[in-house]
Specification:
The chain has 450 residues and is of the alpha+beta class. It folds into three domains: 186 residues, no CATH class; 100 residues, Pdz3 Domain (Roll); 84 residues, PDZ domain (Pdz3 Domain, Roll), CATH 2.30.42.10. The protein has a four-stranded antiparallel sheet with strand order 6-5-7-8. Strand 5 and strand 6 form a beta hairpin. The longest helix has 30 residues. The mean pLDDT is 89.
Length: 450
């Protein structure tokens, strides 16, 4: 069932973003007088199609991993003399660049709209209150105090832990200073955190922990709720409603205490004693946590969840803006995402960010499913960030992508004549090889994360 939900979520997510991207090409092509032959969402065999009064065929195809807009073009076949004026190849360089750039631009505009809607509707966030500072970490050296609430990173507002983590992404691999503003006992203070080639080249680094901060966690009663069928907890005989009292000889007073013991015991047998309704005394159970690789280390998991809990009301803030203020907030967030994505690509090229962090459709499907399940705010945020990523990646100067076409047209503008077909074909083959190699790495990473 989860697999089916993930597939549906992938189709919905990519369907929206691909349609937006291709519509950008389509809309500008039409405004430039180019005849559009086909607008396809997806590749492969058409599931259904229709034509408009101008003769454009609209297609929804079977493989939802992309799309394309096919235009009348003399390079792809014979064009009747009376239609040559409508051919893409007959248009000036400036218009061809505009058509190529329109797809990524549509993705950026869509991200602004998604963020605008998110800010107008509003959302809840848990204030980033520091629960612990890890000894010897950058935050520890900067003397960031336990109990402080982070409010800004480099003058950018921080509403919750997500905002702080996204701000830290910009510093991966850097030797630099991060400026944090925090509320300490009601007083705003600034802390300059020094980084030295921070998490450079690490596989799926835990940015918050590497920075040295652990979120404040409210005390949670260790009452079991969800038991995953077939998991280690289920096989040991644990039941929903059990209260964990002892694990590995240690008295358990808090859920996170139990989680830490389980995570540190991958592949090792634990004796867990639980308090069970209508059972005299404690019930002793033997469980062996399954070892799962997470953020570069092996952690134990037993397939169990805790009863729902709530954070203190004073830590929960409601974030919303007026429709007018949301425009500025959405544009600023989109610009930050664009800069972050370009920066990550650059660092990946020079080796500061590991290729292990590349994600493909399997990861996108899982995250899409989680975001849809969580709520509209999460889905809008995910759509916006993925839309920006799609726009940025398509602007890379790689033949086969929009950026590669733009590069060809700029060279043509400088030379006052296009590159030879042989040169373009060779560059296209190299570009396709590079893109397919990245796709293979992304698929491999997806599979290794399963």
């Amino acid at each position: 069932m989860e697999f089916l939900e993930s597939v549906i979520s992938l189709i919905i997510t990519l369907g929206i973003l691909v349609t937006v991207h291709e519509y950008g090409h389509f809309w500008v092509a039409r405004r430039c007088g180019v005849k559009v032959l086909r607008f396809s969402v997806g590749f492969g065999k058409p599931i259904f199609s229709w034509h408009d009064k101008l003769g454009t065929e609209y297609v929804v195809a079977a493989i939802p991993l992309g799309g394309y807009v096919r235009m009348l073009d003399e390079r792809e076949g014979h064009v009747p003399s009376e239609l040559k004026v409508q051919a893409f190849s007959s248009k000036p360089v400036s218009q061809r660049i505009a058509i190529a750039f329109a797809g990524p631009l549509a993705n950026f505009i869509f991200a602004v709209l998604a963020y605008w809607l998110m800010f107008v509707l509003g959302f809840s966030a848990i204030q980033p209150k520091v629960g612990a500072v890890i000894d010897g970490s950058p935050a520890y050296e900067a003397q960031v105090p336990v109990g402080s609430i982070i409010t800004q990173i480099d003058d950018e507002p921080v509403h919750g832990w997500r905002d702080l983590v996204m701000g830290l992404v910009n510093y991966i691999g850097d030797t630099d200073t991060v400026s944090l503003t925090a509320q300490v006992d009601g007083v705003s203070k600034q802390f300059d955190v020094e980084l030295d080639k921070w998490v450079a080249g690490e596989k799926e680094p835990d940015l918050l922990r590497s920075f040295g901060l652990e979120p404040f966690k409210p005390r949670i009663e260790p009452v079991l709720d969800t038991i995953i069928e077939g998991g280690a907890a289920d096989q040991s005989g644990m039941l929903s409603g059990d209260i964990v009292r002892v694990a590995d000889g240690v008295e358990i007073d808090d859920w996170y205490q139990f989680v830490e013991i389980v995570q540190n015991s991958a592949g090792q047998q634990l004796i867990v004693e639980v308090e069970r309704s209508q059972s005299p005394g404690l019930v002793a159970l033997k469980v062996v946590p399954e070892g799962v690789e997470s953020q570069g280390r092996l952690v134990g998991k037993i397939g169990v969840g805790v009863e729902p809990y709530k954070y203190p009301e004073e830590l929960i803030v409601q974030v919303s803006y007026s429709p007018l203020d949301s425009v500025g907030a959405a544009a600023s967030q989109t610009w930050s995402d664009i800069a972050m994505t370009f920066g990550a690509v650059k660092k990946m090229v020079v080796g500061l960010v590991s290729l292990d962090n590349l994600s493909g459709p399997i990861t996108i499907a899982r995250v899409a499913n989680q975001s849809i399940s969580t709520g509209l705010e999460e889905f809008l945020r995910f759509l916006a960030l993925l839309s920006v990523s799609l726009g940025v990646l398509n602007l890379l100067p790689i033949p086969m992508l929009d950026g590669g076409h733009i590069l060809f047209y700029l060279v043509e503008a400088v030379r006052r004549k296009p590159l030879s077909e042989k040169s373009q074909l060779m560059a296209l083959k190299l570009g396709m090889s590079f893109v397919f190699m990245l796709m293979a790495v992304a698929f491999y990473n997806d599979i290794m994360r399963l």
